[in-house]
Amino acid sequence: ASDVYKRQDLSYGGNNKDRMKFRLAETYLLLAEARLMQNNAQEMVLVIDFGGQYNQLIARRVRESGVYCEIVSYKHSLEAIKAKNPKGIIFTGGPNSAYLEDSPTIDPEIYTWGVPVLGICYGSQLMMHMLGGHVCVAPEREYGKTVVDLDTTSPMFAGLSEKNVCWMSHNDYIETAAPGFKIVASTPNCPVAAAEDAARKLYCVQFHPEVLHTENGTKMLSNFVYNVCGCAGTWKMDSFVEQTVAELKERIGDGKVLCALSGGVDSSVCAAMLAKAIGKQLTCVFVDHGLLRKNEREEVCAVFGEGGQFDINFICVDARERFYSKLAGVTAPEGKRKIIGEEFIRVFEEEAKKIGAVDYLAQGTIYPDVVESGLGGESATIKSHHNVGGLPDFVDFKEIVEPLRDLFKDEVRQSGRELGLPENLVARQPFPGPGLAIRIIGDVTPEKVAIVQDADAIYREEVDKLPMSERPSQYFAALTNMRSVGVMGDERTYDYAIALRAVTTTDFMTAEVTMLPPATITTAANRIVNEVKHINRVLFDYTTKPPATIEFE
Are strands 491-504 and 535-541 parallel, antiparallel or unpaired? Predict the structure, then answer.
C-alpha cells in the first residue's frame, strides 16, 4: 500500500481501478499511522485519590515498575478520567466509611469500562459497597503488620508465598464480598483481605501494598500493572529527559527564561534541562535570602557562576536584609513560607526588568510539592511550597515553566544523571526553598540563623565521616523555640536546645529514623554545645514520616 501511495501522482486522475488502489492505500496508511500513534502514546495508570495518606506512595511504586502514573481527585469527572486513557485505575485509601451517605464516592459507570480497577483499603471497601457487598465496623480493628493468607492463583499474588506479612490500617472491614467476586486473601480477623472479579478486571485489597512494611507489596502492584493491566513498562527517565527537552524547545521558542536557582537538586536539574533546551536564552538567578546553609552561597557561585561548569547567564542577588525585614516577628511556618515565596517572586521580577524582556519563569517544582500543596489529589494540604502554594496572586511573567512537575525526588536525581550533572550535585542533601526559616521554630532573626548554620555544619561534618552506605537520606539541625537551664563553666545558663534529625527514605513520601552510631551523635552534640553560642542542650528527633514531616517546622 505504501509503494502504491508513493507512486501515485495526486494530479493524475487515472482510471477507476487506479483511483481505488490509491484510496485503499491511503486508508491503510491512515490506519497504520493511528495504530502507531496509539502504541507510542505514554501508557498510564491513574491513581484516584479518596483522601489517603499514601496516595503519592502508590504512584511512586507504580512508576518503579516502569509505568507512568498520575494522581487525580475522586471529584474528577468520568470524562476527564476517560480522556487520560488509563491502562489501569487504582483507588486509594481514605479516612471515611464507605457506607455513609456523605463519604467520597465515584460514578459506578467506571466499573463497566473494562479498564482494570484496584481498590486499596477504603478503595476496596468502596468498591464492595457499591457493587453489592457488605461493609461495616470491624469487630476487631487491625493496625500494623499482619500475616495474610494469599491465594497465589490470583494474578495479583502470582509468584508469592501463601503467607505474607502485610500492613493493615482499618476500623471498617468487608464482611461479605460483592456478587461475582472471589475471595483471594484473608486473615483471622478479616475474612475478605483481598477479592477479585477477573471477568470484569476488578480487584481489591484491604491492606496497603504500597508501604514498605508489606512484604512483596511492590511485587503485588507490579503484578496488577503487568498481569492484569497488560502494561508494557515504557516509563524510563532517559526518554523523559529527551522528550521534555524537545517540548521545552517547542514551547519556549525564542523566548527568554528566568530560572529560580537555589543550588539544590531540583532547581539545578531544572536549570540543566533548560540549558540543554535553550542555552543562552536562560538566565539563572540565585538569591541569597540569608537563610542558606553555612558557606552555601560560595559553593553555589563556584558551580554555576563565572568559571563554573555551566554555560549560562548567572546572577547572584544579596537580599538578606530584605528577607529578614519581611520575616520579623512571623512565627507560623505557613506564614514564613508564603512571605518567602512572594518575596522570591518580587526579586525575580526586579531582576527580569534589569535584563530586559523575560517571557517565562522556570522553577524546580516536583510532584510531591504539587500533591502536598493540595493540587494533585484529594489529600489535605500538608504545607505550602514557595514554588506552588506560596505564589502571590500577581506574577509579572507570561508563563511559569516547571519541567520536573511530574517527577518524584529520586526521579529528579536520575534525570540529573541523564543530563550529565556531577554525582556530588545530584546526590546532595535536599534543602527546602524557604531555607533555614522553617528549621527555626518561632521568629527568624540573623542571630538564630547563625546558630542553626553553625550547629548544622558541625552535625553534617560528623555524619559525613560515616561510609556512604551508612549515611541517612537527609540529616540536619533545627533550632527549637525551647530554652532550658544548663550549667556551663560552673555557671547557670538559660539557652536554646538544638534538635538533630536523620531519616532514611527512597521517595521522601515516607521516612524511617536513621539510627546513627551513638559515637556520631555524642560527638556532634558535644561539639555543638562547646562551639556554638547560645546552645546548652541537644535533642535527637526519633519521629518517622508519617506522622511527622521530614522537615522540622
Answer: parallel
Stretch 7-33: mean pLDDT, rounded? Answer: 50
Residue 228: all three cell numbers together: 492484569
Catalytic residue flag (residue 385)? no
Distance CA 273, CA 511 (A): 28
CA distance 13 to 551: 73
pLDDT-wise least confident of 25-29, 180-184, 390-394, 500-504? 390-394
Task: For the chain, give percent helix, strand, coil, nearest 5.
Answer: 35, 25, 40
pLDDT of residue 90: 97
Set 210, 215, 372, 402: catalytic member: 210
Indicate if the pLDDT at residue 418 is higher than 50.
Answer: yes
Q: Which amino acid is at 268?
A: S
| pLDDT confidence bin for 14, thresholds 50/70/90 | low
Point out which residues pair with 276 in neighbouring strands. Answer: none
Q: How many CB atoms lie within 10 A of CB 493?
A: 15
More confident residue, 223 or 469: 223
From the list 161, 154, 163, 193, the residue with the least C-alpha distance to 175 is: 193
Q: What are the beta bridge partners of residue 501?
A: 476, 541
Q: Which residues on adjacent β-strands are paired with residue 163? A: 149
> Is the CB of residue 485 less than 8 Å from the CB of residue 323?
no
Chain segment 300-330, per-residue pLDDT in tens: 888 778 877 777 889 999 999 999 999 999 9
Q: What is the mean pLDDT of residues 44-71?
A: 89
- For residue 32 the three cell numbers come to 497504520
Give pTM, 2 decimals. 0.62
Asked if residues 174 and 97 have their Cβ atoms less than 8 Å apart, the reply is no
Residue-wise pLDDT for 106-151, tens only, equals 999 999 999 999 999 999 999 999 999 999 988 877 778 889 999 9
d(CA 230, CA 220): 14
CA 240 to centroid of chain Cα atoms? 16
Per the listing, cell 538567578 goes with 285
In this structure, the number of other CB atoms found within 10 A of the CB of residue 90 comes to: 30
Cell of 294: 553555612
Cell output for 443:
521568629
β-sheet bridge partners, residue 182: 196
Cα–Cα distance measured from residue 424 to residue 497, given in angstroms and rounded to the nearest whole number? 31
pLDDT confidence tier of residue 8, bands split at 50, 70 and 90: very low
Q: What is the DSSP letter of 15?
A: -
From the CB of residue 514, how many other CB atoms can be counted at a distance below 10 Å? Answer: 17
Give the mean model confidence (pLDDT) for residues 204-219.
90
Q: Are 252 and 359 in contact (CB under 8 A)?
A: yes
Measured between alpha carbons, how far is 330 from 285 in angstroms, rounded to an integer? 26
Q: Is 121 a catalytic residue?
A: yes
Q: Give the separation between CA 161 and CA 151, rounded to whole angstroms.
A: 9
Longest alpha-carbon distance in the chain: 110
* Catalytic annotation, pick one of 69, 121, 229, 284: 121
- Predicted pLDDT at 305: 81
129, 170, 208, 385: the active-site residue: 208
306 given a catalytic annotation: no
H or E segment and range at residue 147: strand 134-150
